[in-house]
User: Fold this.
Amino acid sequence: MRLKFRLNGRPVEVEVPPGRRLLDLLREDLGLIGTKEGCGEGECGACTVLVDGKPRLSCLTLALQVEGKDVLTVEGLAQGGKLHPLQEALVETAGVQCGFCTPGFLMAAYALLLENPNPTREEVRAWLSGNLCRCTGYEQIVDAVLLAARRLREEKGAES
Amino acid sequence: MRLRPIPAVKPRSLEEALRYLEEGGRPLAGGTDLLVAIRKGQEKPELLVYVGELPELRILREGPEGLEIGAALTHAELLVHPATERFPILRAVLRTIGSPAIRAMGTLGGNLVTASPAGDSLVALSLLEARVRLVGPRGERELPIPEFLVGPRKTALERGELVRSVFLPYPEGHPRSFFRKVGRRRALIIAVASLGALVWVRDGRVERARLALGSVAPTVLRPRDVEEALVGRPLAPEAWEDLVPVLSAATQPISDLRATAEYRRKVAGRLLLALAEALQAGP
Ligand SMILES: Cc1cc2nc3c(=O)[nH]c(=O)nc-3n(C[C@H](O)[C@H](O)[C@H](O)COP(=O)(O)OP(=O)(O)OC[C@H]3O[C@@H](n4cnc5c(N)ncnc54)[C@H](O)[C@@H]3O)c2cc1C
Ligand code: FES
Ligand code: FES
Assistant:
């Protein structure tokens, strides 16, 4: 099919089998290899992207399911060469070790902050429950999300 | 293992979708069950028919008697929509499904048609005595939940048919809602056993109760004898103890990787006392 959608803010048009996984479309056809494949079965969250602002597992999404939609991947987080506050915070709290799970955590956390800019620690933990990390033990990641949330709120407060 | 692209279509209308289904297509909504099963080699459909965005399957209609929920609405959508406020039991159940991404993808229709013994929404739909509205080549029909769920992973859905919506009658009065799921991992828990209940309370006693158990029988189970025996009892676990073995005996659990039958039976009994405790603690 001729698939049209928006990817990281830009319109994209590609020829793709409608039953191709979004994960393969992103990584292999479009060269966006930030999105990772862990389990391929919905259990690890490494492949999380946002579709119309909601978290989605790209390993369980077919190309035709994003027709006309707005897809955001980890490559779309940094703006103008500057890391997103979530990315900065993850570096600061040592929430990244091998980094394999990081894009998935970033996208899930980004979706959380869209919905709830001021989450509690417990809410962050519960929200990230679908993302697995073999290295960090999660607390640093939760710290990073809380730190980024605070900075984003302060930024917003300063603007208005 | 790579998932080879399976032929898939996105019909623009319900009629077009039904035509594909008649030719042997398989409905796909959120994909959180079906695409996993395909990857594991448990399912080999020849054509996937994406029904997740058909407007007919995405309605949410509040009528005088109840709420009609389109099959393709996602768990996350149902959790935040004001129309589901009148069904706290539905929300209590949907909140426990998977992770945020799974809830944003998975649909009520998909959960229903998968008909897993551990399907969480089935507990709420059974308690609410929901009716399933089907549409197919020979028109529409409506089935109550017990007739729709004919066994583990088996439904009354015929070839060429789609679940169009689920109708939830408003319960009379204001029953208290309870749902508890016991599993092995906090997130993404597939229940080892779960108990949901609607309990009408009057003057500190059970006036009427509906119970539904998940994961302890081929399909969701309503233990009618326990429901009846609860009528008139005070809201105190001590006064329910004798029903624990009755409830355990009503279950027909299996042993699998997640738990033994014996353990499931025990957990089900314990959950009854947890319900009594929750009722005693107050709304
Ligand atoms: C990591 C993970 C965690 C999960 N956790 C839970 C959990 O906690 N509790 C739980 O209950 N489930 C859980 N699930 C299972 C699954 O997410 C749910 O059952 C979900 O509701 C399925 O909906 P879907 O739209 O994704 O279904 P799909 O995968 O699209 O379809 C499932 C089945 O329904 C059929 N179908 C779909 N829509 C229709 C329709 N309108 N008419 C006729 N047939 C239709 C399909 O042909 C297929 O057979 C989990 C799954 C994963 C991968
Ligand atoms: S790769 Fe998609 S959830 Fe693990
Ligand atoms: S940093 Fe290695 S898996 Fe999370």
About this structure: The interface with chain A takes residues 1-3, 5-10, 28, 31-32, 35-36, 39-40, 48, 50, 52, 76, 98-102, 104-105, 186-188 of chain B (CB under 8 Å).
